[in-house]
Amino acid sequence: MDAPHSVAIIGSGFGGIGMAIRLRRAGIHDLVILEKAADLGGTWRDNTYPGAACDVPSHLYSFSFEPGAGWSRRFSPQPEILDYLRGCARRHGLLPHLRFGTEVTEARFDEDAGLWRISTSRGEFAARVLVSACGQLNRPALPDIAGRDSFTGTSFHSARWDHSFDPAGRRVAVIGTGASAIQFVPELARTAARLHVFQRSAPYVIAKSDRVYRPGTRALFAAVPGLRELGRAAVYTSLESRAPAFVRHPGLMKVIARRFHDHLADQVTDPALRAALIPDYPMGCKRILISDDYYPALARPGVELVTDPIERITPTGVVTADGTPREVDTIVYGTGFRAAEFLAPMKIVGRDGRELSESWRDGARAHLGIAVSGFPNLFLLYGPYTNLGHNSIIYMLESQFRYVLRCVQAIERHRFAWIDVRPDVQAAFEAEMRRRMRDTIWARGCTSWYMNAAGEVTNNWPGSTLGYRRATRRPDPRHFEVRRLP
What we know:
Blueprint: E1 5-10, H1 14-25, E2 31-34, H2 43-46, H3 78-91, E3 98-99, E4 104-110, E5 115-120, E6 123-132, E7 154-157, E8 171-175, H4 181-191, E9 194-198, E10 205-206, H5 215-223, H6 225-240, H7 243-247, H8 253-267, H9 271-276, E11 289-290, H10 294-298, E12 303-306, E13 310-314, E14 317-320, E15 325-327, E16 330-333, E17 347-349, H11 356-359, E18 378-380, H12 393-413, E19 416-421, H13 423-437, H14 465-471, E20 480-484
GO molecular function, one term: monooxygenase activity
Organism: Actinomadura craniellae
InterPro entries: FAD-bind_Monooxygenase_sf (IPR051209), FAD/NAD-bd_sf (IPR036188)
């Protein structure tokens, strides 16, 4: 076992890498990053499907302290984002702190020693502070469809793309029409002999307006940092202006909805297909998607949009509720992630032997989406109540970095064995979230991955990103129970 560390971080995506950078820049070098995979990158390591790219402009989907000047286009593709994260880790000296192939199975808090005892696939670790940077979109969800395991062809989830699969001349079924599917469906449609896209509910898709950055523009970004900062600010302001429509005044969503209807009318001329692509729920209630080539892909010869519910999967294909069988060679599941199962399947044990899974039996809860009562010195990044529908999650993460860093500094400065958010403080925060959530577009009757099993929206922040930054500006000492080291 390593000697106890000041901080152990689980995960090496944007959250884990950014948190480690902020800790090192503050002079906290005794840290370890535990990563179950063989490389860093989180979701940008795992999602390598054709067409994978960011849906937030890259000058905003990057750290403010590491803006990056080499993006090839406005919405960067997956390989560039992964290279960016690797470069961040290298430039900020994180490589010696990374432990690859180290999957955390259990973390148990030792109240007497004020340490987290961490069991992993590669041995034991201990740390004063434990930071979970596992994110929300890391465990693929497969649909509960009768006969799914009976299929004898090739099948895989989009987040576990089989790169030995060649769609040329193949009959392919895509189940799901979410954020990943609208990126890889156009790629499959170009070469597959037959493509069936099974749609449970139509997504709202607006124009992406992507563009390539010419060499001169990229050189200008590199030479004039102020230009990058100005562009970042402009993108942030444009996206943040949509916040009221999501969190306070859903009626304003009609303005954004016009962009959807115009985009659909421009790209789909077939009235029947266009009607099938109009959602039956309010815009924004589920994630709004962006694409310039998804709708044209559905209109290609050899592509079929299927809106009848799936009844079962057979060894050779998919049968819908109307009894129609569709014989296919391959099934690709674009069915999202188990987003509400934060920290699963790890076993986390806090004070008095309390298990986090038991505390979260009715859904994940955390003060500010960061601290969980009964689990001292445990901090979550991209936890409950911190997802967005309108802006870059990197901005939210940077707010959390600052909050967690100041907690760590307080623990070290004041020689605290541990700090634990008070249960009444967490309960008050949860009550405020439930009250504010009632006014949001997400509470308008649709189901989405923003919800837990009980139908509560617990993934999203019901406010502006500026409001979250103010709320996390600094930890309030009155919110915590503390115990000092002897």
